[in-house]
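Changelog note: in this version the structure field was regenerated for every chain. One regenerated record is shown below for reference.
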Amino acid sequence: MRRSTANIFWLGTKELRSFFRDYVLLGLVVYAFTIAVYAQASSTAQELHNAAVAIVDEDHSPLSRAIAADFLPPFFKPAQEIEAGETDRALDLARYGFVIDVPPHFERDMRAGRDPGLQVNIDATAAMQAGIGADYIQQILDAEIARFAARADQTVRDPVNLVMHVEYNPNTTTSWFTSVMAIIGNITMLAIVLAGAAIVREREHGTMDHLMVMPLRPFEIATAKIAANGLVITAASWFALSVVVRVFLGVPIVGSVPLFIVGVMLYLFFATAVGLFLGTIARSMPQLGLLFILVSVPLNMLSGSNTPLESMPPVLQVLMEFSPTTHFVSLAQAVLFRGAGIDVVWPDFLAVAGIGAVFFVAALARFRRVTAMAVT
């Protein structure tokens, strides 16, 4: 037992030295857990920000001018007045995302108790922005018209007043979600790539044959590669969460980071085992890259990190319950976003550990067969 542990330790240190001398993989890890996380969190915002609004004021009344003055930063840019005939061209050229057309005699009809209508033209090529912006415009118009109808500065209250409270992300800031999900996606990506590249690199350099003739067991070689690459990914994940997400992006983490890191370590048994398995199939790094795309993309897209698992077809929901990635995303969101403890997320921890162990055993069996064939 002591000899086997010593072999794993020294093989692991050799693997770490090889990794730090491979500047391409080292640069990929640094980029994936720093610049890539920051870029994904800061460039894919889905909330409305400085949307361009135009108003076609055919009424020229105090009410229409009050409506135009209600569009303020940071959600909207100040409304720009255009002529009625310019609406289609302005939308075609993407000068404005929203064009509000106030018809003639709008205020007069309001005073007479009629029910006049406003037209809001929306550029829906950016579907998320269009949906959110339409809702905001509806609220602004309702509030301004209610103030006008009541001849007061207060809105007319409905018999039932609906008050919404958003938990965990009060301002629904996209970066709070995408930054953490970027780390989770990169954990899966880098764990598979590093573990697979470790096997391919040994084969390409001709050092796998050297390992086979040494008094080492396939279990020790595979475990050392998994442990070494898992250590690199764990350290990079902690740095990305503690420095990039918390400090540079200013995202508050309400849960336990050590508990999340424990989940990362359990999940890496699965992800690195997949990389080890693919490394025994691929004969070169390009082949490994192609196999990686076939495995990693479905795992990330269907894990619940992009869309909720409940919104997927029932068949996919059942199938993805057998993927540790789904349970890892679930426990990560519960721990980091909602501050859940081990008493809440232990079923996900158990699922990740159990399914990951099955994949680890399968990858180890495949590695033993390949190494036995290489020796003979």
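Spot check on this record: The beta strands are 53-57, 80-81, 98-102, 119-122. The radius of gyration is 28 Å.
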